[in-house]
């Protein structure tokens, strides 16, 4: 499976790879700012309800597109659930922990700690797909993680709960990326089928969980539902949730899970520095700023090495010595 995925990735034109990556970077940047505005500036009490709105928007948009023959994907049957598993569960974890950490962390610290997703994705691809990585790429990842640790060490707004959410979000994001790439190899579902059924399968359980925990009541009782500015930001967040998920699927389809993660890191270069001035909850310190700079420098080098490699990311890079991570054969993924 891994060799097949790498071969398919290599066959896509460079323009499609780059344009899908830029689309994902822009979408990720915009939704981070919009979500931060809804959850922090307007103090909306339910990140879970916001996630439900994004799921419903995805379902409605793709359903209408299917009915108008704009996109095509198979009709629902029982086999779809088995084909999608465990992606919906990973998506729920990724979505909930992502929104929770967005609410609880300042934008710069959110983007810094998200760098651990790169390391987790690399480890997961090595473990499941038995991929290998060049020494230069490994060194750039170490630089990214080191910078993240330096920046986080001086976080004057340290919050154990917030840090737990963001690290869980890193793990869910890495797993979601790898499994999304795997599911995209199923031609019977296609890009739009994966996106539509992923949202359809999880929206009802998420809604029930929201109602059971009282989260739904808090969201519906929010006092600013009559505020046009809040409603506009909320609806924009819902729509951007769909755009983000589509951009992730598109980027994963034309690239690899690791490349998609790298693009997210590169996007964070802009988000982190802009977040120093936007959001109002960043507490400046020179150590934190130094860590940010180290982290972002590593991200830029990593992105340069990834997009300038003549072979798929995660395999041999030109003129570099390969570093292998050995996994026992009986523990590796069997396709």
Automatic annotation (TrEMBL):
Residues 312-335 are annotated as: Disordered. It is found in: Membrane. The chain crosses the membrane at residues 21-38, 44-64, 76-92, 112-130, 137-156, 162-180, 192-213, 228-250, 257-278, 284-305. It is a multi-pass membrane protein. One of its GO terms (cellular component) is membrane. InterPro entries: Sugar_P_trans_dom (IPR004853), TPT_transporter (IPR050186). It holds the Pfam family TPT. Residues 312-323 have a biased composition (Polar residues). Residues 22-303 form the Sugar phosphate transporter domain. Keywords: Membrane, Transmembrane, Transmembrane helix. It comes from the Eukaryota. Its main location: membrane. PANTHER family: SOLUTE CARRIER FAMILY 35. This is Sugar phosphate transporter domain-containing protein. It comes from Gambusia affinis.
